Amino acid sequence: MSDDNSKRVLSAAEISNYVVCPEAWRLKYIENTSYKQGEGTEESKELREEWVRTHDLSSELREYAKIAYLLLLVLTVFVSAWDQIKKLESQTSDGEKKLLHFIDSAKQAIPLEILGLFLVLGILIFVWDLLDRKRKSLRDSAGIDEKTDVIAVRGSSEMPGKKYFSPELQLASRPDALLVEEGFIIPADRKPMTNKVRDRHVIQLLVHCRLVEEDEGKRPPYGVLFMGKSVRTVRIKNTDEKQRWLDSVMAEMRSILGGVPAVPAPSKMKCKYCDVRQSCSYSRYHPRSDKPDESEERSEQKRSAEEAAS
Fold first, then answer.
1. Is 166 helix (H, G, I), strand (E, B) or coil?
2. Are 37 and 276 in contact (CB under 8 A)?
3. Is the whole model's pTM more than 0.70, yes or no?
4. Are the CB atoms for 292 and 306 separated by under 8 Å?
5. Smallest Cα–Cα separation from 250: which of 10, 8, 74?
6. 51 and 240 in contact (C-beta within 8 Å)?
7. Dihedral of CA 300/205/164/261: which sign?
8. Residue 153: what are its φ and ψ, rounded to 5°?
């Protein structure tokens, strides 16, 4: 391989693929071997899109709640200032006095005014409370608590995601979401097809943390994974030890890009759902071989779908 190729940009998704099997990564990203997406990819995509829509709706409801609150504030100020307006009557011109007298007469002729005023206030309070409750419910379903601010979601129209890039590290990533917790920007990834945290999920999150730190000048203490269909929240600590692991993995990848042979990591189940198994001479899966255990097969199928969608 050329020196230029050994210095090309590595993405978080690439690194995630590498820790599953270096040879599969080499075939897919270096040799550009054609492949088909694994089973379950469409379901994974739909679940991710549903998660994004939940964030968008939550953001919209927050804005509507702000408008309702603003209307409440304006109406309250208006009611409070009405008596002060009446006191100015003695200081106004004849034309203004006639206008105020007309308004005052209309008020006396409609004794239900106060009832109507409180009705409007009640409706606004009800709407505000309804929107706020619905927003909290949506946040819960997305795995977000009230102490967390969501500032970016990949694929969102309300809060567009952010792509990070380091020219120095030749490293790029695009977190599924950016959160703010206790003054730190926290990267997050959504993994809808599995409840089990694997190395490929962790290392992808570590790449996000590395680039967020470089961009913000402040190191995230952890990253967040939203796992499975139930959106279980898992915090992964961003430790020095984990970052050294990331450095060693990137060094391995750079050496392979520079010409060092990739070390394959085949297994029967892993190879069965590998995107490039038909082009891999190390594959341990053959269609005519004995069928694997069904529970193991289902588990690996979910793993493959999540990897393909990352």
1. strand
2. no
3. yes
4. no
5. 10
6. no
7. negative
8. -140, 125
C-beta contacts of 202-205 below 8 A and 24+ residues apart:
202/236, 202/242, 203/15, 203/16, 203/19, 203/245, 203/246, 203/249, 204/12, 204/13, 204/15, 204/16, 204/173, 204/310, 205/236
CA distance 120 to 65: 15
Show the low-confidence residues of the chain (pLDDT under 50): 1, 109-111, 289-297, 307-310
- Residue 270's CB is within 10 A of a number of other CB atoms, namely 20
Q: Which of 51, 10, 109, 73 is nearest to 227 (CA)?
A: 51
Three-class HEC string of 236-301: EECCHHHHHHHHHHHHHHHHHHCCCCCCCCCCHHHHHCCCCHHHCCCCCCCCCCCCCCHHHHHHHH
Helix/strand/coil for 41: helix
Report strand pairing: 184-191 vs 149-153.
Answer: unpaired
- pLDDT tens digits along 130-170: 877 888 888 888 999 888 999 999 999 889 999 999 999 99
Query: Residue 151 and residue 179: Cα distance in Å, rounded?
Result: 6
Residue 283: other Cβ atoms inside 10 A: 19
User: Phi then psi for 112, rounded to 5 degrees?
Assistant: -85, 5
Per the structure block, which two tokens stand in for 203? Answer: 């290392």
Token pair recorded at residue 245: 């692991």
Torsion of CA 129, 134, 138, 143, to 10 degrees: 40
Handedness of CA 161, 210, 8, 253 (dihedral sign): negative
Instruction: Tell me which residue has tokens 């997050």.
Output: 188
Reading across the β-sheet that carries 222-227, which strands appear in turn?
149-153, 177-181, 184-191, 222-227, 232-237
Q: What is the DSSP string of 60-113?
A: HHHHHHHHHHHHHHHHHHHHHHHHHHHHGGGGS-HHHHHHHHHHHHHHHH-TTH
Burial of 181: CB neighbours in 10 Å, binned 0-12, 13-18, 19+: middle
Q: Residue 153 and residue 184: Cα distance in Å, rounded?
A: 16
Strands, E assignment, 98-163: 149-153
